Amino acid sequence: MNDLVHLVKNLASVPSFSSWEEVIHPMIKEHLKPIEHIQWHHVPDNNLIAVIPGNADKKPVALSAHLDKINHFGEHPPSTLPVQITPEKAIGQMDDAVGLAICIAMALQSQSDDFPPLLLLFSEMEESYGLKHHPHLLKNEGKGYSHGLGAKRISEYLLEHDMVPKCVITIDTTPLFKGQPGVALYSSHWEFTNAVVTEEEKEHTLKMCDELLSIDPGIRMANNHNDYLQYGLHLNKNGGNPVPSLAIEPAIHPYHQKNESVYIEDVERVFEIIQQWLREST
Questions:
Q1: What angle do helix axes 264-280 and 97-110 make, rounded to 10 degrees?
Q2: 3-280 has which fold?
Q3: Contact in structure between 275 and 90 (CB atoms under 8 Å)
């Protein structure tokens, strides 16, 4: 089992359900412990930002993933969630253990590669499923929580502390391939947020899309809801330098159910795309 798949397995086993994301913080910090001079920022309630040193001549890039899983296990979930690894697939609660694993693996890779400084944005409450279907399983019965709350809070923290990155790449999972392998790229947050975007932001976003597609022309251009919308909306609404927000996602099937599966080749493919882009970024 390679290191990336091992990370996916470990992270998928933790019952970090919506509003209870803090239970996965220790594992994340343990995996990132080898990185010297890492800086941690805790953003209430359960959000984390890890600042990873890199080539100071390059502008910082943010990689994001959400911490929360959907609780399909009821009021008494197991302390360790079931995960199965086959030669072809990882099976379990893969949304968004996959994104977390790729972010962590990329940070570890950065120590021996020429990457820009990285901001790892780990958000709470990306999922809306629990709020709609079983709020009684959330803290405070879901009162005071909203879909995308974590990414909004992280965006506000970045703006307040002058930590706005060059761009944000969100890594989540996509249901668009309906059981087949594949990788999708989402880029037009304004189609869902109704944000007023400048031509400069659109140009910067298109440039990033072209760069990623030049690395892997087989990426499918699409759009869907996830935290990338929140970062695009909030990091750009006050003007200033445009901050492209994109999402790169390996296929998942079934979606928002027990025993979600992802193709290992897709997970590795997303890692390789981002790795190459970071090497070439200026």
A1: 40
A2: Aminopeptidase (3.40.630)
A3: no
β-bridge partners, 251: 174
pTM flag (> 0.85): yes
C-alpha 22/C-alpha 159 separation (Å) is 23
Q: From CA 69, how far away is CA 17, in angstroms rounded?
A: 5
Please, where are the H alpha helices in 1-74?
Answer: 3-12, 25-31
pLDDT for 18-47, tens place per residue?
Answer: 999 999 999 999 999 999 999 999 999 999
Query: Smallest Cα–Cα separation from 37: which of 58, 57, 52?
Result: 52
Q: Please check whether residue 195 is in contact with residue 243, taking contact to mean a CB–CB distance below 8 angstroms.
A: no
How many C-beta atoms surround the C-beta of residue 47 within 10 A? 25
Residues 6+ apart with CB under 8 A from 77: 15, 17, 71
pLDDT at 1 over 80: no
Digit-coded pLDDT (tens) for 62-101: 999 999 999 999 999 999 999 999 999 999 999 999 999 9
Q: Which residues pair with 185 in a beta bridge?
A: 221, 248
Taking only the tens place, the pLDDT of each residue in 251-273 is: 999 999 999 999 999 999 999 99
Q: In sequence order, what E strands does 105-171 have?
A: 118-123, 168-171
Measured between alpha carbons, how far is 267 from 271 in angstroms, rounded to an integer?
Answer: 6
